[in-house]
Amino acid sequence: MRESTGGTRERIKAVALELFTEQGYEKTSLREIAERLNVTKAALYYHFKSKDDIVASFVEDRLVQIDALTAWAESQPATLDTRRELVSRYADTMFSGEMPSVMRFFEQNQTVLKSLTAGQQMRGRMMKLADALCRGDDSPAAQLRATLSLFAVHGSWFALRAPHISDDERRKIALEVADELLAALGPDPAPPAPPAPPDVGATGRS
């Protein structure tokens, strides 16, 4: 059975990421990616015309995830519970599949990202997600805390340098730090006031 086009594309991305990690982005060629995949260079070109196209596909996948999180957050009440759930969902995307390796690659290849249109869009999307996170508190401090709470999650992949730390421990620490920041954001919106009771004393007055 022939492998689906989508499956081939994902396999190319996985192998490319392996090689980028092993020997660096600049030192990896499309020919090497094709050889490790055991396909012709022409077959690789069918899916990606360049290494930049492969990197752009990683960024585009990430943008889709961020957009979905932002849309969810904007549909929820601006409460601390929503903020915690949003950061937890953000962590879920960061600690699943190949995303840890992708994020390490992003961090180590900032110059490559800045040269790509998709890479330039990443910052704007992250700021929009941070805005959704601090809805209900538009102070400058809230904007910074919201951004830092997200950074605590993805920054845990390169900022935590403790040896032998597990992914679960890394995630737990990141969420603890994020929660400290979230707790300092503006209070939950007050519930609507109950309707005023009828003025019983005024009943029957002429």
Write a structural description:
The protein has 206 residues and is mostly helical. Helices cover 68% and strands 0% of the residues. It is built from 10 helices and no strands. Helix 4 packs parallel to helix 8 and helix 5 packs parallel to helix 9.
Short description:
The chain is an all-alpha fold and 206 residues long. 68% of the residues lie in helices and 0% in strands. The chain is elongated, with a radius of gyration of 23 Å.
Shape: elongated
CATH fold-level topology of the largest domain: Tetracycline Repressor, domain 2
CATH class of the largest domain: Mainly Alpha
Provide the β-strand percentage band. under 5%
Cα-based radius of gyration, to the nearest Å: 23 Å
CATH architecture of the largest domain: Orthogonal Bundle
* Tally of separate helices: 10
Pattern of helices and strands = HHHHHHHHHH
Distance between the termini: 90 Å
What about the largest sheet?
A: none
Q: What is the SS-derived class?
A: mainly alpha
Which blocks of ≥5 consecutive residues have pLDDT under 50?
none
Number of domains: 2
* Total count of strands: 0
Rounded mean pLDDT score: 85
Secondary structure: helix percent: 55-70%
Keywords: DNA-binding
Pfam families: TetR_N
Protein name: TetR family transcriptional regulator
GO molecular function, one term: transcription cis-regulatory region binding
Write a concise keyword list for the protein shown above:
206 residues, Arc Repressor Mutant, subunit A, DNA-binding transcription factor activity, 0% strand, 2 domains, Tetracycline Repressor, domain 2, mainly alpha, single chain, Homeodomain-like_sf
